[in-house]
Write a structure and sequence with these properties.
It comes from Paramagnetospirillum kuznetsovii. By secondary structure, the chain is α+β, with helices and mostly antiparallel strands. 60% of the residues lie in helices and 10% in strands. 29% of the residues are buried. It folds into two domains: 177 residues, Beta-Lactamase, CATH 3.30.450; 195 residues, Hypothetical protein af1432.
Length: 432
């Protein structure tokens, strides 16, 4: 792995992990903040309910109109006591019987002035053992409208209902909020710290994964090279044809700015273009003379056999363009499906030029090699019939230079040049 690629991976991992950590911290921090403030309110409600229930022990029995004066006196004494001895206390309250009839009340107008108008005609009477509340935030003050049941000493029998407005002092509210903020900040810091600790672990795992992927990809590319070479040697006793034709195709693909993904498919297809010849008998494949009509029909089946091979492997399916269409011609007179023009895949149009050029300029069992200039002239005459002019013209412009560099060479050096290109398009792309 190059130093530049490694830096890019570290940078991308740091950015993505950091962004993910910030998003998670923000989401979790928001959830914790909401939960903490809900918990704070619930804690104050529990205090209010507990104070209200201490009133149950002082009330006369039963709670009805007959005891209403005594209930009023107990309620007023309770409120006075709470206001004198507690920071947080009820500003006012009302007591209702089991039939929801008001029996006593001390709800000063100052309450409405402090927290806004309260609809005292709208009452919520919870089920026995439960409480109801509604918070009212006014500046730095919290007022809780609380309704809870009044039970006897055993706590089992519901005597009536208590409704009051409970005031939480600014000091206590601020203290509780600070505690909630501290908890939220600790959660956010914990998430960010965990993210930071995960970075080197994930980076190391990523390095191992990339290393394994590179080894697997190199093995796959090597397997393609080995299979293509085996086929080429069976056909002509040398595998140099496969290297040359693939290099020609690659240089032409670069000249017309073919996208890297298409180049990778072209490499696979170039090496495996004749994989279907494994099914062709030696008597036909190695025949030194021209094939008769029946033999040629058998030879053409190597295309379908090749497609069967690459279709079996997911990683090779994109080689089908070259394997299946490298004998098509631009005017539609090729085989096996008679495709024409741009209906022929671009990789097949590129490879057809590289394949024919190497065939013309290379020695075969049935012919001597042709000079590059003569081969170029023959191919130029097939411009628009056999070959796509938009692809052939760039190739002709560079053909003689390519031939001097690649053509006629044996295996030595060609395999190294091709592996370098394959590394660039396959392995470096894996790390991008």
């Amino acid at each position: 792995m190059s130093l530049l690629v490694a830096r890019n991976i570290r940078r991308q991992l740091a950015v993505r992990l950091g962004l993910g950590g910030v998003i998670i911290a923000a989401a979790l921090g928001g959830a914790v903040s909401w939960y903490e403030f809900e918990r704070i309110e619930d804690a104050f409600v529990d205090e209010a309910v507990e104070q209200a229930r201490t009133l149950s022990l002082r009330l006369p029995s039963p709670l009805d109109k007959s005891t209403s004066p005594r209930i009023q006196a107990v309620l007023e004494a309770f409120l006075d006591e709470r206001q004198q001895n507690h920071w947080d206390h009820f500003l006012g309250a009302e007591i209702y019987g089991l039939d929801n009839t008001a029996l006593a009340g001390a709800m000063p107008k100052e309450i409405d002035e402090a927290i806004g108008a309260i609809d005292h005609s709208d009452h919520v009477f919870p089920r026995p053992g439960q409480s109801w509340y509604a918070p009212h935030h006014v500046g730095d003050r919290l007022y809780l409208r609380v309704v809870t049941g009044l039970a006897d000493a055993s706590g089992k029998t519901n005597l009536g209902y208590f409704e009051g407005v409970y005031h939480v002092t600014p000091a206590r509210l601020t203290e509780a909020r600070h505690a909630g903020f501290r908890t939220t900040i600790l959660v956010i810091l914990a998430v960010l710290a965990t993210t930071g600790l995960l970075y080197p672990i994930i980076l190391q795992l990523n390095r191992r994964l990339v290393k394994s992927a590179r080894e697997l990809l190199a093995a796959n590319v090597g397997a393609i090279e080995m299979l293509g070479n085996a086929i080429a040697k069976r056909d002509s006793d040398t595998n140099s044809h496969n290297y040359r034709v693939t290099l020609y195709a690659l240089r032409l693909a670069e000249a017309i700015a073919l996208p890297p993904a298409s180049v990778r498919s072209l490499i696979k297809g170039a090496f495996l273009h004749d994989v279907g010849k494994l099914a062709i008998p030696d008597s036909i494949l190695l025949k030194p003379g021209k094939l008769d009509e029946m033999e040629f029909e058998i030879m053409k089946t190597h295309v379908s056999h090749g497609l069967d091979v690459v279709a079996r492997f997911e990683w090779l399916k994109d080689a089908a363009d070259v394997v299946g269409c490298h004998h098509e011609k631009f005017d539609g007179t090729g085989y096996t499906t008679g495709l024409a023009g741009e209906d022929i895949p671009i990789n097949a149009r590129i490879f057809a030029i590289a394949d024919v050029f190497d065939a013309l300029t290379s020695r075969r069992p049935y012919k001597a090699p042709m000079p590059a200039t003569e081969a170029i002239a023959i191919m130029a005459s097939a411009r628009g019939t056999h070959f796509d002019p938009s692809v052939l013209d760039p190739f002709i412009a560079m053909a003689e230079d390519l031939y001097r560099e690649i053509g006629g060479h044996a295996d030595m050096g060609l395999d190294h040049a091709l592996r370098q290109l394959a590394t660039h398009y396959f392995l470096d792309a894996l790390e991008a």
